[in-house]
Design a protein that fits this description.
globular; mainly alpha
């Protein structure tokens, strides 16, 4: 499960540094290039709830293996892409595969380690690999792009998927029997998937259409209407619901998803702004930019190990508060970046501080999100948590990116860009403070799962 999560997280960031080379190699226009990122995010975020339900209904190991096969095949085809449309389609199929395998993997982890010290350790290892994949994706993407070519940011997933398939076949000996209490709620699944997908679509398109434009407003209103219709249908349906609304009655589920949404928004935005600061303000090349994210990756691993050690002694909400405050402090420190700065003075210190705090948060929030959830709904709860993280990342990047662009204006001068990135990083810190407040007011009263 750690290898699976590393691969999924890696693919969220490994492509970013290589975008200029991808544009030159396949002839992407400036308006279409972001779809290399959006296609993956759209399919991944929109189908996560359906993937989680499929894992519960049809078997987690079966859905995991299906997702791995789809992910690996799409990566292989994307590496051989000869036109922009080919790569965008491959990225979308990667997102479909990730939406199947991510909740299935997390549900298997939850079922295998239900309580006690093994659960703390398992989620600590999982969280370290989750964050390390995202951070190392920038490093790996930069090195591959500069020394092997951009196609290898796609090919790199193929051997990882193959290894994960072998490990899953050997390591997952038993799986909970699928629970089928009635006919599946097909209409509810269509409403939820369409609503979430359209919401993510509207958000990611704010780089082209402003938040108040008719296109964005219409898209978001239709998405909200679809999701409202889904909630209404789930209350009255006689079929097996996609999400049992009673899940949200669990304080742990509601609080962990709200916390996760804000953390996802802050982290995706911070990665984006720091990467652009290094390249567009300090003039760092792609390979060196990736290398300079290495301290962040190592810091997350350190934080995750600390979370394992401390998780035996303190309640999860304390780790969420401590980690959230550390990460917020690191992002506020990032907000002091200057146009004449340097890696050692402006990036290294806040990277270490924020990454250790982030590592402290990851395992506990995932563990809390499944506290009190019936075993046969673990996949659904896992898909919901992954979905909140993905929607948070899309929403945060769009909102904070808009604020940064407004501060920057029309200028491409390093000083103007620096001001925009600094604002975005400061706002990321504010989001983390909001997450800490949720941990203090909602998750503090969740029964301890240790």
């Amino acid at each position: 499960m750690a290898v699976v999560q590393f691969m999924v997280s890696l693919d969220l960031s490994v492509v970013n540094v290589g975008l200029p080379q991808i544009a030159a190699g396949l002839g992407f226009g400036a308006a279409n290039l972001p779809w290399v990122i959006h296609a993956y995010a759209l399919a991944f975020g929109g189908l996560l709830l359906l993937g989680g339900k499929a894992a519960d209904r049809y078997g987690r190991k079966r859905v995991l293996l299906l997702g791995l096969g789809l992910f690996g095949l799409a990566s292989l085809l994307g590496g051989f892409a000869q036109a922009p449309g080919h790569l965008v389609a491959a990225r979308a199929v990667q997102g479909v595969g990730a939406a199947a395998l991510a909740p299935a993997a997390l549900a298997l982890l939850t079922a295998t380690f239900p309580t006690g010290r093994p659960r703390v350790r398992a989620f600590g290892v999982w969280s370290a690999m989750n964050a390390a994949g995202g951070a190392l994706g920038v490093l790996i993407g930069g090195l591959l792009t500069e020394y092997a070519g951009w196609r290898w940011v796609m090919f790199v997933n193929v051997p990882m998927a193959a290894v994960a398939v072998v490990l899953a076949q050997r390591g997952i000996n038993t799986d909970a029997r699928p629970v089928r209490t009635g006919r599946p709620d097909v209409v509810g699944a269509v409403l939820a998937t369409s609503g979430v997908t359209l919401l993510v679509f509207g958000i990611v398109r704010t780089d082209r259409y402003g938040w108040t434009s008719p296109v964005t407003v219409t898209t978001v209103v239709v998405a909200v209407a679809l999701l409202a219709g889904f909630v209404r249908l789930e209350r009255i349906t006689t079929r097996e619901p996609l999400i049992r609304l009673g899940l949200f009655a669990h304080r742990s589920v509601a609080g962990a998803n709200a916390y996760n949404l804000l953390v996802g928004a802050a982290m995706a935005s911070a990665f984006y702004f720091v990467s652009l600061y290094l390249q567009r303000v300090l003039g760092t090349g792609p390979a060196l930019t990736g290398l300079q994210f290495l301290p962040f990756a190592l810091g997350v691993v350190v934080g995750s190990v600390l979370a394992i050690k401390l998780g035996y002694r303190v309640a999860p909400w304390i780790l969420l508060v401590t980690g959230g405050l550390m990460t917020a402090t690191g992002f506020a420190w990032f907000g002091l970046i200057s146009v004449d700065g340097a890696f050692l003075t402006d990036v290294l210190g806040p990277s270490i501080f924020a990454s250790i705090g982030f590592g402290l948060c990851l395992g506990p929030v995932v563990s809390l999100a499944t506290v009190g959830v019936p075993p046969h709904e673990a996949g659904t709860a896992s898909g919901l948590l992954s979905s909140s993280r993905q929607i948070g990342a899309s929403l945060g990047l769009a909102a904070l990116g808009t604020a940064a662009n407004h501060r920057t204006g029309q200028s491409d001068a390093p000083a103007a860009l620096n001001d925009g990135y600094a604002l975005g990083l400061t706002l990321s810190a504010v989001l983390l403070v909001g997450a800490v407040l949720i941990a203090l007011t909602v998750l503090r009263r969740v029964p301890d799962s240790r």
